[in-house]
Each structure stands twice: as structure tokens, then as C-alpha cells.
Amino acid sequence: MAQTHEIKAQSRNDEGKGASRRLRRAAMVPAVVYGANQPPQSIQIEHNTILLAAKNEWFFSSILDLNVDGKVQKVLVRDWQKHPFKQQMLHMDFLRVNENEAIRVNVPLHFLNQEKSPAGKTSGVVISHNLTEVEVSCLPGNLPEFIELDLVDLKPGDIVHLSQVKLPKGVSLSALSLGADHDIAVVTANAVKEEAEPAAEAAAAPEGEAKPAEKK
Are 96 and 36 in contact (CB under 8 A)? Predict the structure, then answer.
């Protein structure tokens, strides 16, 4: 069962760009909660709360307990806006979830035991993570914070496809429902061919080059 993460917020009545600017100056983040056949709700969250939470991968891939004025709603982060160069979150969108309806969420992949694998121990083999997250479909209660992929048996030349990823109970990969053509490579272990050493230069002056005439 995934860990519970609570985010505290307050409702707000003032909207618009001017109101949002005032909130940001007061170290608050304007946000909106919508979905689950309920009207959208404008809220505000302390910026430090968002800044600290956003440093964790669970913030963007887990179901959160959004506590607005003491009332808890189950939500997912659906969109966010960051300042182009400042460490500042400008706006957040949260989607309410119905615990009886399946959701689609991008979940991070955690790669285990890569350095212990035959491929990891072989010189000249490059292990590539072609995907670092996958979209899963499941009921909210089954949503994992991450999916582990054990690479302990990975050998040089191996390819790990989506269909080889072990999933928790009640969880499926959205891509695989589209057909075998979408069973793409998640991890590859390819040997790198060394380039042939460039040929040594024959001589300083090319053959047949005329020597300068001697002065008499």
C-alpha cells in the first residue's frame, strides 16, 4: 500500500491575475481543484509546502490527501507552472479522483542491481534506460508510487521490453493495451565497438612532393 501524503491548503475567493500576483508576493501558490463531477475550487497553498513536496517523485505520481480547510480530498497533480529560472512554483492544478474509477498515471521506474548484473560487470557494455517512467492504469487504491525493475540477470545484448516489467496486482500498462507494436524496449545492454586506430602518418612530406630548388 502506498504511503499517505497530505498537503494542507486554504480556500480562496479572489481570482484573476492580480489576485494571483498578490498571493505569490505573500509566499503562497494559487491552485485549482477540479473533477469528480464537482465544481472547480480555487485554493492557496504555502509556497514552502509545495517547494518541499515537489522535490519528491511521489508528489507528481501519487494520490495526495489535499486538506482544504480541514476537509480532505483525494487528488492527483495534473499540471503545474514554474518560474523559468527562479525556484518558484507559480500555479498548481489538482484533479479529484473517484476511488471506484480507474485512472492513468505516469509512475517512475526504479532500476535495481544493475551494477551486479553480467552486463554491468562487462567492460564495454552500455546499459541504456530508454524509459524512466511508464503510464499505468489502475484503481486509485492500487496506484504504486514507483515500479521496480530488477536487472540482476541482465546480460550483454539483452533487451527488456514493457511486457517483461513485473507489475503490482491490479495494475496494467496502458501502452500494452494498444497492441504488440507498443511493447517497446525499456532497457538495452549494448556492446560498444571500439573504433579502429587511425593509420599512422607515413611521412612529414607526401611522396612525390618536389623538394625546393637549391640556391647556387
Answer: yes
